[in-house]
Records
---
Amino acid sequence: MLKLYFGNSITIISTLLLGANIAYMLWGYLGRQTIQKWGMIILLFILLHGAFWYFANVRDLYSNSIIFATDGSVEMGLFSVSSIQSIVFWAASVIVWLLGIVSIFKPEYRQHIFYIIAIVSLVQIAFIEGSRIWLYCSAPAHFDYL
């Protein structure tokens, strides 16, 4: 199981960014009384969240899944392009980005938007990381590339 999160340098970076994402969400919630600049908090979270998913997609060989779906010249990555994991990832990402854009024009709702973004992100992370763990437990050969 440690191989999933500490198997190589990319998994280690994505694990550290996963922890940073969760810590940032907790900090945003626990520090809600003292935070003054919710717009900056949202922007930094979207950047941190994007960095995590970049490394998570590299870790899970998602680019291979895209190439496999277009021409089949490489082996598919961990999740296919049409999988529920991919759909949840993209839907949640669109929601996060749209809410980030809305927060630019609606400063009075920024604190609430941060909470919604954090909840959507937690669901996204829990679903995809849970899927990875379930796949590892049911078919560990999929992780031989680590």
Note: The mean pLDDT is 95.
---
Amino acid sequence: MAGLDLSPIAAVVEDLVLLDVVRISRPAAGEPVFNDETGEYVWPEDEVVYEGKGAVQAAGTPGGVTSLPVPNLPWSDETRSRYRALTPLSAPTAERDMLITVVQVHPKGDLALIGRQWRAQDPSVAGTLGVVRITGLDQVQQTREVP
């Protein structure tokens, strides 16, 4: 018995939904290195795993505080931002904690997306009848700081 072929639908969804350019990268390991030319510490370059067609969308309602504040903690709790990345099935599966960045938006797209980063919460979803690869994301609230 032949299975259901969703490749024609996948092509239509890619053309209608995957309008922006996203980058999936593996954060570099290691500490910042001193650059003699600039006199500043520089983080190692991330390893780019994929750069191509994609989309980032809010997933459901806006997130909230994930835990109750505790007066003895030296930090304030961050909110959890529920987003999802959509990429073609041909794109590699994002691993947990990989970074997803929007590097280009389509004409008349939301320019506020450019440069924003999200962290993959889990490996990308894989299934029997998928038409796009879906990755659950949490927006990066803070960037790395120089020590």
Note: The mean pLDDT is 84.
---
Amino acid sequence: MPAVTATGHCTNTAPAPGTIRTVNAKNIGPKFFHLHGRRYGTCPCGKEVSLTERGSLRRHKPPQA
């Protein structure tokens, strides 16, 4: 389990290997089109988080136990 900051955010920025996926929102309509092409990766803490342009995980809090 990665370390957690004083504010409760996970300190890990690298997604677990083999967990990166791209969302295909082409068929679900214009309301959700902003999700299309967005890349998600799973953090070792167990949370699925969207990726930045450089492929790092966004700031997130680990799931509550």
Note: The longest strand covers residues 39-42.
